[in-house]
Amino acid sequence: MKLTKFLFSKGVIYAIILAVFYQIAMVGLYIYGYHVLPDGVNQLTINVVNQDGDKGEAIEKELVPTLSKSFSKVITDKELTESKEELDSRQIQMIIVIPENFVSNLETGKSTIDFYIDESNTTTVINTMEAVAKSVTDNFNQAINQGKLTNILKSLNVTITEQEQITEQLNNSVVQNNVYINKAPGSMDYVMTPSFLSIAAYASSMVVAIVLMNIFLAFIPVTGKWKAFQYVEITGCVIAVVAPLFGVIMTRILISISMQKMISIYLQQIFMQITAFQFTLIFSLLFGQNGIFINIPLMLAQTIAGGGTMPLQIMPDPFKVISYFTPMYPNTQINFGILYGGPMYLFEIRLLAILITSSLVLVLIVWRKWSEMENGRVPVSNNVMG
């Protein structure tokens, strides 16, 4: 065979198309997905809780407009208990608490403002909220140093003499106190581990689905479609039990996690592996080898939509949609919960719903698509090398 004939063969052309498609999909999805940063952080939500009565309201009135310049959602009507629940469930990203006796303590020279931050979260959220905490504290001290506190003190009927005494004492007197819930190590490897585990399970499941799809087609004439499908499903489950073990062991080698968390992560990864296998097998059975043109973009999109690099609130809308019907987002949130704390139950339900739906769709595909192959007829060729 001449080189020119080989280069223009069906298989080589298919490989070129796949390579070009992968380049376009990866570059396009990643650049589009990350274009929302850093401006997109204005979609994050901050609760401001005033515990200092009327005096605190005066401080709050100064604080909220400043925050609203950077964040579209600054909420002031929630109590601390409710705010903590929302922070733990990642509905909000920070709580700023004006504590009881905040203004009174300023009069004695020092006062603390509390910033509640959930560390079981993406680096985008953690770094942004820590920067906000520092900025708010600096702005308070700057306002005091510039004499802007005088207007607040006047509104509280503080005499001029007392105002002068207070402002003289208040140079850098507001102290930042970060209160972390669901505490996690701050290094990038720990923060990204929940996402990396999900990506590993999904990618390996996708490869397994492609391989077993070809085996399924080859075995239909031999065993019939339902037995071939049964074998594929059993094999997928066996792989789902074995493969995640090595990923979890590697995780344990590289970062410090307890044996209890390691076992929990392993069981969760089995769940994820099975779900991702069923999900990706749908496109392989529907479109054969060409299913990779759907599976690859979905996998790439989920590295963003999975919620490991940016929270749902600031994702571009297409990625938000993808996060609702694909398995990587709920699994990443569950991994965060197992390793560092946070919500898991509702995400487990979502992952289970994806598994059940995918399994039913697979049964429907096998039932409708290969009825003519039941009695030993040769399946449609999936060969692209001809």
From TrEMBL:
Localization, UniProt: Membrane
Its domain of life reads: Bacteria
**Cited InterPro entries:** ABC2_TM (IPR013525), T7SS_ABC-Transporter (IPR051328)
Q: Which GO terms describe its cellular component?
A: membrane
Q: How does it sit in the membrane?
A: Multi-pass membrane protein
The record ties this protein, via Gene3D superfamilies, to: abc type-2 transporter like domain
Q: Give every ABC-2 type transporter transmembrane domain span.
A: 14-367
Which residue ranges does UniProt annotate as crossing the membrane?
12-32, 196-222, 228-249, 270-288, 349-367
- GO MF annotation terms: ABC-type transporter activity
For this UniProt record, give its keywords in alphabetical order, as a comma-separated list. Answer: Membrane, Transmembrane, Transmembrane helix
Protein name according to UniProt:
ABC-2 family transporter
Instruction: Give the organism, scientific name.
Output: Lacrimispora xylanisolvens
